[in-house]
Design brief:
By secondary structure, this protein is mostly beta strands. Helices cover 2% and strands 25% of the residues. Strand 5 and strand 6 form a beta hairpin. The mean pLDDT is 91.
Length: 280
């Protein structure tokens, strides 16, 4: 895996870089595994904006990913590693022995021609998918189920990984990337190994236009606004926010404020809370 840094021959190229993962194919994606995706620009089904600063961007097709990997006992060969415009991790096109083709999330170190398996009897090897109760403690895992049979839901972004800490009373203790230790049913499935494309975070966008390609619209700082538009606005020149704590444009606390609802049903599955972010 390499990071290509562009020459500073224009202002837009200054500090721009791209990640070029090893073994990723430039061929067209498998047509039978594509689906149209509508750009809803951060809006709900009612058309109201729920996530700001989204919209525009390049057209793209959705790659149908097999998060369950429920072809138990049928080995599959990785035919190609591909980029997915809808996620940060690399995806792998798998040709199974029965002739079916599926996309799966690629784990670190996965290569073309590698054989992968899933199921209770799969060997304990990098890229294979097993139940948590059959994985040795201390193993690095990813793409973890939270409900039996639902498919991988957490630890799916580029370079992320969790650690299987212990197995006890029908539950597995999983240490998340955030530092949180959570209980998950030991019959849930997980993939052995960390997620691929760990250098994704080192990529530099370089110019505003590249953010627009990714459907990100401009974000204006509250301190650059007038007081009528934002609680942080106003003042002569560059001023601090002048408040006890940062606020949203609607006056609610933000930046570090806990938003998790109290007394959630899943609180009993959390043994240790995530590491608190240190404030400067």
């Amino acid at each position: 895996m390499a990071i290509k840094i562009y020459k500073r021959n224009t202002a837009g190229r200054r500090n721009m870089s791209i990640v070029k993962p090893d073994g990723v194919s430039d061929k067209k994606p498998e047509k039978s595994l594509l689906a149209p995706i509508k750009n809803r620009a951060g809006r709900t089904s009612a058309g109201k904006i729920s996530v700001r600063h989204r919209g525009g961007g390049h057209k793209r097709m959705y790659r149908i990913i097999d998060f369950k990997q429920d072809k138990f006992g049928i080995p599959g060969t990785i035919a190609a590693l591909e980029r997915d415009p809808n996620r940060s991790a690399i995806i792998a096109l798998v040709h199974y022995a029965d002739g079916e083709k599926r996309y799966i999330l690629a784990s670190a170190g996965m290569k073309k021609g590698q054989v992968v398996q899933s199921g209770p009897d799969a060997p304990i090897e990098q890229g294979n998918r097993l139940q948590l109760l059959r994985i040795p403690t201390g193993t690095i895992i990813s793409n973890i189920e939270m409900k039996i049979g639902k498919g991988g839901q957490i630890v799916r972004s580029a370079g992320s990984s969790a650690t299987l800490m212990a197995l006890e009373n029908g539950y597995a203790q999983i240490k998340m990337p955030s530092g949180e230790i959570r209980l998950i049913n030991e019959k849930c499935y997980a993939t052995i190994g960390a997620m691929s494309n760990f250098e994704h975070s080192a990529e530099r966008i370089g110019k505003a236009g590249r953010s627009r390609w990714k459907r990100r619209r401009p974000h204006v700082r509250g301190s650059a606004m007038n007081p009528v538009d934002h609680p942080h606005g106003g003042g002569e020149g560059r001023q601090p926010i002048g408040l006890k704590y940062p606020k949203t444009p609607w006056g609610k606390p933000t930046l570090g404020t806990k938003t998790r609802r109290k007394h959630r049903f899943s609180d009993r599955f959390i043994l240790k809370r995530r590491q608190e972010r240190k404030r400067r």
